[in-house]
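Reading group handout, session on sequence-to-structure problems. Before we discuss, look at one worked example. The prompt was deliberately terse, the way you'd type it at a terminal:

> structure PDZ domain-containing protein

The input record follows.
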Amino acid sequence: MKRKNTRGRKGKTTAKLQISEDPQQKENPGHRTCWSDSDEPQSKFVNFDSERAANFNEDEPKYFESVLRVHKSVVSLVATADGRRMFCSGTVIDHVGEKTWILTSATLVRKPTTQFEVYRQDNIKIEVNLHNEQTATGSLEMCDLHYNIAIVTIEYPGSMVLLPAVGLNNLPKYYSLQPRPVIALGRDVDSKAFLVKCGKLVRKNIELDCKELVVCMCDITKDFVGGPVMDSQKRFLGITYSYEKTALYLPVEVAARCINYFKKERTIPWLRIRGQALHTLALDVLESLSSKFDTPPSGILIDKICDMSTENCGGIEVGDIISKLDGDALYSVAQFTAMFLDKKEAAMDTLNTVILEMDALEAFWL
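And the output record:
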């Protein structure tokens, strides 16, 4: 759809984004590392200046069932390469043939001197510490540096029973981002002890380019990175992305769709339209933005379009607000990405181009 040039005035348009079934991802066949389409640097880790986690001791009994339900599925992983030792937690998510799939953080295999490269499978040794104090040898199946996730596989006798999978199927379409108590889980790399830390999900903007991330106020240590985040309703919310005084996690609705796509295509698509949820913006920015419209807007503010022309994005430009996607109101970047990945998978299955209908508000203030 070709849109008129309406910069400098208010307006609303419906744009169509075409999604092809032919992904153009870069892939390293040596160890099946999935790289983002963009040539720009991938997400860096930064420090966060936040208050310490609140004390939720009185709420801890709510989490007992969640903890007991998954403790056998939470492992610690140790990778050694070039004389360095890297470690993370991880979660058993599937059994594929004789292999057990473990979802963890790409931090496990990132080269610390660059942050933008990973070790090859033949240059790294991975050990997986299980809940029963046994150790298994791991192999790197997949990693993605933008979402900072990796899949490590092991072959372990009786794993279907001894290592129950936390299923990523039949998950809710999108989880609510309402602030509420949550827990971060992990396993200590040295003692092999199971770790639990209580905190609270908050609405907060982040400084990384992976805007799908969610912030929870859990004062965790490095052992938790790659481990699951859950709530008192026994729901698997996501995977811990990085740690400081706040814990960032990648929502499971994004991670699960990436893994499902990888199983079919051996690569992961990357959304070139980047933005921020309006509710995470600073108050002064929201005030300035709201003054441009008759009613306060909602949705995703587009702040970057990578390696694509405006025409290929259905006329969407930097500064626009996408308020609806296929008729569904947008509230978070994770929701936007999850819907895109669903459409990408549909395009792959049908071998046809799939079109996303987007309602866009023209925010002429940029």
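Points for discussion. First: The chain has five helices and 20 strands. Second: The first helix runs from residue 64 to 70.
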